[in-house]
């Protein structure tokens, strides 16, 4: 049973290029999926992502007109298994479920998907539920992304950034033949705002077309010796391709002055909180102009060592703002500084545990 109806709101999904789209985060994500030629969508209910499933269910007529297949999956595992359609076919697929409880259930299917790699863009929209309002154990999806080498997007909590991340997620996935996880927290799912829309785009290849002309590549099946070849591909091809795409397309962002002795590195999802804190300290204005240099990681995995070292040039001290435990990002960035023999003070969990 749906938690709420979006019958009225989903009509906005029909608007075309150049028009202003206004609404809630989960509605904007659906619009971005349609604009980026998604071929199939699946998922499993669970806050904060439940309303995205409600939007998709209420928009089935629109999805059908574009030739997009939608199903409410029996579990997160069956949702993740459906992404296998993107292994052999250039079809863009997306699934959604809740945080670590969802990735735990889907673990086997996602691990195999990440090993063999994908041809079409595969996007996993995770409703991250960490923090004081969470209804589950306090864990982060970051660990799963690292374990299986699934790239992790964590966009700033505003509609242009979130919808832009959907498009980049598909492109990044195809550029590196790797599934991509898009992390949206409770406030991101329900934030209201606007962005400039584009036309909806039917998938270049539909699920129906793929079923009519089945194909398979046994090299993508996760069995030895192919499974070790997949591991080599991750290091030799997929990771470098991902880093190249991240840099060339400016997925991570820089704000504030170019020259300063102190800088802040933060997850994209933490941006609003950091800006609000800087405002209270008199170091940012109401428009978000910061007096402190900010390096915003809209991609939290993989990190880009050269980009981070460039941000650190001329600075004496870096503050890393990372959500939760363990301190995956801080440990990685400290190691990057150590390898580069850079002498710069770093604060993170010692002051913001």
Low-confidence stretches: none
- SS content category: alpha/beta
* Number of alpha- plus pi-helical segments: 15
**Distance between the amino and carboxyl termini:** 39 Å
User: How much of the sequence is in beta strands?
Assistant: 15-25%
Summarize the helix and strand pattern as letters: EHEHHEHHEHHEHEHEHEHHEEHEEHEHE
User: Given the C-alpha coordinates, what overall shape results?
Assistant: globular
Largest sheet: 7 strands, mixed
**How large is the radius of gyration?**
20 Å
Query: Strand order of the main beta sheet, please?
Result: 3-2-4-5-7-6-12
| Averaged pLDDT | 93
According to DSSP, the number of beta strands is 14
Assign a percent range to the helix content. Answer: 40-55%
Helices, strands, pairings?
Blueprint lengths: L19 E5 H11 L2 E6 L6 H9 L1 H7 L2 E4 L3 H7 L2 H4 L3 E7 H7 L1 H10 L5 E7 L13 H7 L2 E3 L5 H18 L3 E6 H5 L1 E5 L10 H6 L13 H23 L4 E3 L6 E6 L3 H10 L13 E4 L1 E3 L3 H8 L4 E5 L6 H12 L5 E3 L6
Parallel strand pairs: 2-3, 2-4, 4-5, 5-7, 6-7, 10-11, 10-13, 13-14
Antiparallel strand pairs: 1-8, 6-12, 9-11
How does this model look, in words?
This protein is of the alpha/beta class. Helices cover 41% and strands 19% of the residues. The chain contains 15 helices and 14 strands. The strands form 3 sheets. A 7-stranded mixed β-sheet has the order 3-2-4-5-7-6-12, with helices on both faces. Helix 1 (25-35) crosses helix 2, helix 1 (25-35) packs across helix 9 and helix 9 crosses helix 12 (226-248). The two termini are 39 Å apart. The mean pLDDT is 93.
